[in-house]
Amino acid sequence: MYIGEKRWKVLRCKLSDRRGDCHLENKQIRISDKLEGKELVEILVHEIVHARVWDLDEEAVEDIGIAVSNALANWYLIKGE
Ligand SMILES: [Zn+2]
Questions:
Q1: Distance from residue 3's CA to the centre of ligand 1 (Å)
Q2: pLDDT tens sequence across 4-50
Q3: Which of 24, 30, 56, 80 is 20 to 30 A removed from 3 (C-alpha atoms)?
């Protein structure tokens, strides 16, 4: 997928100690294969924000992931929990 002008690889992986991560060096986002629904959207948005705005502080990145997944759930675009 493209994030900004750069092509990134997004993978579903077995991750034991985290829900997702973002590697700038090889332009790869990994998302835990255990996630689904609202939590999956939250973490996917979170990692995309890291990829696009790498120096944004973690608290702001977390807020965006949560706000977007809440908005989508509130508008019934995704299932809430
Ligand atoms: Zn983060």
A1: 16
A2: 999 999 999 999 999 999 999 999 999 999 999 999 999 999 999 99
A3: 80
Give the pLDDT confidence score for residue 80 in this predicted structure. Answer: 81
Which CATH code fits 2-74? 3.30.2010.10
Cα 59 to ligand 1 centroid, rounded to whole Å: 8
The pocket of ion ligand 1, defined by CB under 5 A, consists of 61
pTM equals 0.95
- Return the CA Rg of the chain: 12
Nearest one of 70, 72, 30, 73 to 48, comparing CA atoms:
30
Query: Which position has the token pair 């835990």?
Result: 32
